[in-house]
Each structure stands twice: as C-alpha cells, then as structure tokens.
Amino acid sequence: MKRFLLLVALAVAATLPALVLRLVGWRPSPFVDVAAFGVAILAAGFLLSWGAETAEAHISQGLILAAVALVTVLPEYAVDIYYAYMAGVSGPQSQYVQYAAANMTGANRMLVGLAWPLMVVLHWAKDRHRSVDLAPGNATEIGFLLLASLYAFVILLKRSISLVDFLILAAIFGAYVWRVRNLEKSDSPDEVEEPGPAAALNSLSSGAQWAAIAGLVAFAGVVILASAEPFAEAMVSTGRAIGLNEFLLIQWLAPLASEAPAIAVAVLFVRANRAGDGLTAMISDKINQWTLLVGMLPLALSVGAGSLSPLPLDARQGEEFFLTAAQSLFGIALLLRLRLGFRSALALAGLFAVQVGLAFVYRNDEARTIATLTWLAWLYLGLAGILFLVDGRRLAALLRSAITGAPSGLLTEGLQTEDSAPAREDRPPAAAR
Predict the structure, then answer these.
(1) What's the pLDDT tens digit per position in 249-284?
(2) Residue 408 confidence class, pLDDT cut points 50, 70, 90
C-alpha cells in the first residue's frame, strides 16, 4: 500500500506543472507546453489505469478487459476529439481536419504495429515462449475487430466519416461489450497474480475500493480535460518551430504519450504471467479506437461546426485510412489460430517500421507519400488475403463464434506449432510463485 500511495503521489505531482500553467494561462514556449501537458496526460493515464485495474475484482474478465482498454485510452480520445472539434470551428478546409485523421490513424497503426508485437517479445524475454496464446473465448474480440475493419472499407469508399458511421460503429462496439460481459476469468482467484500497483487496494473493503476508483478516475479526468487542448496546440506549434512536419508529430508522437498507459497495463499483465490477457487488452484497445474513436470524430466536428457535418478524407487522409484498414486485416489474419507468434510479431513490427521510416523520408513530398501509403496498403491486403485463403475455415468459424458467442472447436486446433512453445502456459501454483 505504501508503494502504491507513493506512485499515486508521484503521478499527481507530475500533473501539477500542467495544472498551474492552465490555471494562470501562461504559455512559456511550445516545447515547455508539450513536455508539461504531455507528462500530465501520461500521468493521468496511469491513474486511470490503476482505477480500472482495481475494478478487476468486481467485474467479469471479458468486460473488465474491455473497460480497461476503454478507460486507459481516454487521453487519446481527448486529444483527437479536440482536433475534430476545432476542425468544425475552423471549417472543412482547415488543417485540423488532417490533424484529427492523422492522430486517429497513427494511434490505430501504432497499436497493431508496435503494441501487439511488444507483448510477444516481452513474453519471450520473460519465459522463452515463442507465442502469446489466446483462449477460445477471445474469438469474440477478433471477430468484432474483423467486423469493424470490414466496415472501414465502406468509409473508405465514401471518403468521409459521417454521423451514420458513428451510429454503426457505436453499435458494433456496443454489441462487442454485450458479448464479452459474461466472459469469466480462466483461473480461480487464488491462481491469478494481480498485474499492477493497484493490487494493494484489494486489501480494502469493497466500498473503499470503489471510492478509490472514483477518486482516481475523477482526478485523472480533470487533468486530461485541462491538458488536451494546450497539448494538442503545442504539438502543432512545436512542429512549426523546429521545421518538422506537424502532421507527423501529431500522427506518431502524440499517440506515444496518450497510448503509453494502456500499453503499460498490458505489459504488467505479461509480467504477471498473463500474457494472453495483455494481448487481449491491446486487441480490445484496438476495437474501441477503431469503432468509438473513429465514430466520434464527425460528432465532435458537428458540435464545433454547429451543424451536422461529416469528417472529409482528402487524398492523403484517404490513403492513410486505407493503410490503417489494411494493416488491421493483416493483424486479424495473423490471429486466426488464436495466437500471435514470434515471426508474426516481427512481420507486424517490421512493416510498421517501414511505414514510419518512409513517412519521415518523404515528409516533404506529398505525391511520393501518397504512393508509398498505397503500395504498403496493398502489400498488407495481399498478405492478409493469402492467410485468409489458407485459414478460410478458421475465418468462418471465428465469425460464427463472434456472432453466436459459442467458441468453435476448430479454433483450438493446431495451436502448437514450431512457432510456439506449449500452446498454454503451465503456470506454477500461487504458493510457488
């Protein structure tokens, strides 16, 4: 408990410079603003994650992993929704339209290309397992991610994200939460090692735990709301000040700060011998960003504009969205066997490194950037298509599992291959740990 309280005190202290700057209205420089407000968002994200983690003892496994994923990415929502709101205020030709799309696509691609492989690498480094294996029930997450990714191509054909899309994407997310609400823990309570610092709160009464959850979430929410606007504006100003394309900073640097708490929670799951839960949390994170975050952008834009308005996707943003959707399908194809192997993780990370590297190489050449985005998207689609053809029966079984909620026996076949150690972790008894 002392360690947990110390961590909370450090996180709160990290938010104080940003809160002071916000209260007095002083903006010393874009660089100071990025540092102060970025650190505040990061610290608030950890407070949110600890609050969600504490609720794990009170809510079903499937629902808590979805809730953790949703709560820990609230910083990402705050920044992106601000850009979308300002796009509505400034008009459809505003740079804020591009910023909103950039932040959304960057965050989504970072999850699949960086966070998913990280779970596998950490699991291998810790236990020398060459894959992270999922439970048959996790077909639900993969199935709903597939539905959202397929719908993304409908948005791509329209070249805009509308309020109708928001309703459909919100319905997909709602159905997903409804489906996972009753998924229970696969281990008995005495066999599950709690993943992070907030496990100290388990010694308190139920009422005290809920009070702690409310306090952590409320304070973090205030910090995020206070920091989102200055952090988002400081990102733009910093890019201009150092002569670097602000679009790239918003696409890749801003999500690093806002996504870090969610990734840290997943890392704690891996360290607590729950690598499958860590990967599931990252998949759930991807689902809520690929549904709710995408859908909320036209809603925020409409509020800013004062009228119902879609978020347009220009030539550059259309290809960014295409690449994001194609990468999602490739990631799903790699999960058809309910595991993510070491070679699969390297493929995701390698292709992600290529796209980020080429984005900076061609940062001042719009035509070559668009061409690069296009051929990378088709490469992802080609690879996904091959895997879908090879595992077509598993793809159909996965969709049936997501729709009906009944795991198919086909999904559990062939889990042990040369790419993995034993298909399931052999966990030592709690006493031995």
Answers:
(1) 888 888 887 787 778 778 878 887 888 888 988 998
(2) low
Least Cα distance to 291 among 98, 149, 97, 115 occurs for 149
Angle of the 61-72 helix axis to the 74-90 helix axis, nearest 10: 50
CATH class of 2-203+212-404: mainly alpha
Contact by Cβ (8 Å): 80, 107: yes
Angle at 100 between CA 99 and CA 105, to 5 degrees: 95
**Total residue length of the chain:** 433
| pTM for the predicted model, two decimal places | 0.83
Convert the pLDDT of each residue in 83-103 to its tens digit: 999 999 988 788 899 999 999
For β-strands 160-161 and 131-133, DSSP reports them as unpaired
d(CA 93, CA 202): 51
Residue boundaries of the structural domains of the chain = 2-203+212-404
Token pair for residue 107?
């965050």
The C-alpha atoms of residue 185 and residue 179 are separated, in whole angstroms, by 15
Residue 39 neighbours by CB under 8 Å, 6+ apart? 14, 15, 17, 18
